[in-house]
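Example record used in the benchmark description.
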Amino acid sequence: MGHIILPRSAGLVKPAGGLGVRWGHPLADRLLWAVAPGLGVSGDLIEGQPGALLGTGTWGGQTEIGAALDSANSTNDGAYWPWTDRLASLTNQWTIVVWADPTTLVSYSSLLRIPYRAAGWTSPYHSLVLGRSALTSSIEMQFATSSTTRETIISAVGAIADTDPLTMYAATRNGTVVRFFRNATQHGGDAATVATVVDISGKQPPTLLNRSSTSVGEGMVGRSPLAAIWGRALTDGEIAWLAAEPYAFVAAPGRRLFVAPIGTAAALAGTVAGVSATTGTLTTSIPLAGVTAGQSAASGALTTGIPLAGAVSAAASVAGSLTTGAGLAGGVGAAGTATGTLTTAIVLVGSTAGVATATGNLTGGAPMGLASQVNAVATVSGSLTTGIPLVGTIAAVPALIAFGMKPAIGHASGRATVGIASILRPGTGHGDHAPMPGVGLARPAPGIPAETEP
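Model output (structure tokens):
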């Protein structure tokens, strides 16, 4: 399967610390182990297990593609990471990739090794190796076939030199075929090997730029910013992709949202939007600052001592009993229907607009003051008894209020009892009384008997 090689871009630049793996990326398929040394957090990219330095090695040497493990001593320096059981899945197919900038090579200089034993340095020495072949310019890959034997495959000459700039060294094994690469190009032809599965039962720490954490040596002076092992043979296109974008499979950490547990007294500042429904019992003392919008329904019992500052809008319906002594400051808009019994001592300050219908009995205990405006009262059905003083303006009452006449207010079915004073314009006598603008006095409305003042 072919791959599109993009120009060097974001995948060339090492992402910020706290790295991970983009598991949906094609280059992450069967990735078993990967490290990007020198990030401050030196853990491997998959499990986060921290790396440990050998000798005088340091994190933070600089290369073309970012910080790196820096080795100044070819005998003692390097780094290693704890064993991971992901590597136990290796069979007879894999890929080893190491980015390195060597400055001094020695015999059998190591790029990456997984030792076979924790103690002693006897055959087969390693479970898996990628490094220099003796004192030549070839690279060799070795793997253990048993607790005493190993297989060695050597590349063509010219594969590695201490004059190399930062280079991606790679080797793939696909059954009986081994291939070596420098950057995006295969180095030499295919090499044959046995079909035997690797013996990796020693489970020793992978070691970078040295041969072993317990038996140091055969290292190099140089730097390495990235190393990885796959449980499959990467294709030519994937090798070229890695050479162009070495961090293409590496993901920077995403944002995390931390939410205070329900039941705390945490203050929520800003906006709480899109709450659909609260069922059961909700008890809270959380102060909500800002706006609470889009609450759909509250069913069951709602008990709250929440001060609501700002606006509460788009409340659809309240079913059951609502008992509150809360003060609502500002505006209460678009209230739909209240069914059942409504008992309240709420003082409404500001404007109450768009009240549609009240059915059943509306009983006001102590006289309640409505300040400012009450607009668009449509229909009252049943009994209306009130001692409410109305201050301000009463709008949209569809009957005439005539001078000296008993007013007919809207359409009242049942019994309506009101006591509204005549509307007069001040004058010197009865004859000087004039109607308020828009109020007709020429004759009574049909069906309403005229009366004179006493």
